[in-house]
Amino acid sequence: MLGVILNPYHLQIVSFILINIILGISIYITLSSGQLSLGNAGFMGIGAYTSALLTINFDLPIFLGIILGAVVAGVFGILIGIPALRLSGVYLAIATLGFGEVIRVIFVNWESITQGSIGLSGIPHLGRELFKSFQITGFDPDMLGLKNNQFIYLLVVLTLLLVNILLIWFFIRQNKSRVGRAFAAIKMDEKAAESMGINITYYKVLSFTQGAILAGFAGALYAHVMAYISPADFAYHRAVDILIFSIFGGSELIWGAIFGATFMTILPEALRFISDYRYMIYGVVLIAMMAFRPQGIIDVSLLNWFKKKLKIKRGGSLGIRTKKYN
Amino acid sequence: MLLEQIINGITLGSIYAIVALGFTLVFGVLGIINMAHGEIFMIGAFIGVLITSVFGLPLWIAFLAAIGVTVILGYMLERIALRPLRGKQGVSHLAPLISTIGVSILLENLSHHIFGAGNHPFRHSFAQIQFQVGSITIYLVQILIFVISITLMVVLSYWLSKTKAGKALRATAENLETASLLGVNTKRTITTTVILASALGGIAGILVGMAFNSVNPQMGLSMGLKGLAIIILGGMGNVKGAMAGGLLLGLAETMIVAYGDSGYRDAIAFITIIFILLLRPQGIFGKNTAEAGR
């Protein structure tokens, strides 16, 4: 039964969606303090290469590699974030885009370590490593009626899903905390926020670094899910894709980034039957979207409408509880 | 040898300057980055290839055709992607950025579909004509590119500073509402600006085709990114800054290819701007407030 539903191709797409959701959140979190950073593809690359190189060359366990990848990306985030504070708006966007390009060019040229534009292959696969540890305990996927291959991809999806739920939970909590309110205040009006006693430098660097850590984390996961990375994976197109996830879905809310990442990952796959035209359609969708709904698909009023619907359905008594899911 | 490199650098730089002018005009008036500019430039280059290599017509017709097509594209860009977003309530400043990205994705894949992914040679009759001045070789193409670029810049500067339409454009760039109160037809001025910027992109496309003898659908992207770097270098919305920045970048790139590591050629633009932004956030020629360029 389970074995029929779970097609490795679909599982692979689901794992891309889950990685893209993390990337979407990474740009949402920098946007939530009013900073537009297009360097997340660069941070993603740093995370991916760090984790891949550590696990290939030093036989580090994958989980340690992924965490170190995120940490290194975070360190770069602080290093870039502090001087980038002087910039705002378009200047910050272009400078961070430039940072991403510089990182990519370094990956291409530092051939002794990164193998240049050929890319790194033979990166330990997240699913296979997990599978090995399952095998040691004597578990056989046949017990669930699954083939080895399906089980490996299923493991990847489940791990990513768990990570996603934890991250989304964390950031929803953070949005309602002091930190989230500080971000929102800075986004609305920097000077007013400063005069209210919010430490702008600290919170801006914090949100920039959180974005960098998340992007690096997603990059490290990407490396271990794909088992192959090349500098082209972290180029301008990736930066634009990440931005689109958040803007298309709606940049005001975390749900926007999640929806955008899901939709924009499925769209090219769903349009595969007209493969020649699919990226043209992607472009047209973006233009039309901005003309008719520039705030993104999911905004506060849509969410409120949705909540009202839910309230009516569940009856008044549960209405108060649904209000929590802001 | 050094002199030859300087000539190469100036040729490249004057093309960069024209591309950057397109960016800077749109940014100055509308306050947005036109991410589709690189792709319009690429379409201009392809029109050049089509006219000269496929139909075998002379170069000046290629220029006219490229200008014609890019003007139409510019008009459509304004009408479809930019105008619907203007003056709408609650539109974030990111919306026009995304919609021009949409246009750029559309154009890149369209030309990929029509022309294929490969390189197209740009044939013209005087590619090999060269002069010997002392020990250095100068190609006729280089002189032509330089002359065309300089002419364009002079005409554009004159147009901006002396004519009524140019003054209207500068007034709109300064403050859209005030200009509109003072009787400037801002709608028309904005359309003119986008069209003018696109035409500049188209001309630059043919010049690049002539200089490098190769045109492909991906060239718009790298040129677009360099154009962005240049307008930061020269100060956002600053016409003279864009020209100087373009020449500077052209020279820097040629020098790094000749005397340094050619692998880092594409990064030099961004390494430079990252340093410049940290030292002087408003660009080399920018005004003192970084806020003004937001």
Topology:
The complex is a heterodimer of chains A (326) and B (294).
Chain A: H1 2-5, H2 8-31, H3 40-58, H4 62-84, H5 89-109, H6 111-114, E1 120-121, H7 126-136, H8 148-176, H9 178-188, H10 190-195, H11 200-226, E2 228-229, H12 236-249, H13 254-270, H14 278-292, H15 300-314, H16 316-322
Antiparallel strand pairs in A: 1-2
Helix pairs in contact in A: 2-8, 2-11, 2-12, 2-13, 3-4, 3-5, 3-11, 4-11, 7-8, 8-9, 9-11, 12-13, 15-16
Chain B: H1 2-30, H2 37-54, H3 59-82, H4 95-115, E1 130-133, E2 136-139, H5 140-162, H6 164-174, H7 176-181, H8 186-212, H9 219-234, H10 239-259, H11 265-279
Helix pairs in contact in B: 1-5, 1-8, 1-9, 1-10, 2-3, 2-4, 2-8, 2-9, 3-8, 5-6, 5-8, 6-8, 9-10, 9-11, 10-11
How would you describe this protein?
Chain A: GO terms for molecular function: branched-chain amino acid transmembrane transporter activity. Chain A: InterPro entries: ABC_transp_permease (IPR001851), LivM-like (IPR043428). Chain A: This is Branched-chain amino acid ABC transporter permease. The complex is a heterodimer of chains A (326) and B (294). In chain A, 76% of the residues lie in helices and 1% in strands. Chain A is an all-alpha fold. Chain A has one domain (2-234). A two-stranded antiparallel sheet of chain A has the order 1-2. Mean pLDDT of chain A is 85; it is low at 322-326. In chain B, helix 2 (37-54) packs parallel to helix 4 (95-115), helix 2 crosses helix 8 (186-212) and helix 2 (37-54) packs across helix 9 (219-234). In chain B, a hairpin with a 2-residue loop joins strand 1 and strand 2 (136-139). Chain B has a single domain (2-86, 93-293), classed as ABC transporter involved in vitamin B12 uptake, BtuC, CATH 1.10.3470. Chain B has helices spanning 2-30, 37-54, 59-82, 95-115, 140-162, 164-174, 176-181, 186-212, 219-234, 239-259, 265-279; strands at 130-133, 136-139. In chain B, 72% of the residues lie in helices and 3% in strands. The chains are: A mainly alpha (326), B mainly alpha (294). At the A-B interface, helix 5, helix 12 and helix 14 of A face helix 4, helix 9 and helix 11 of B.
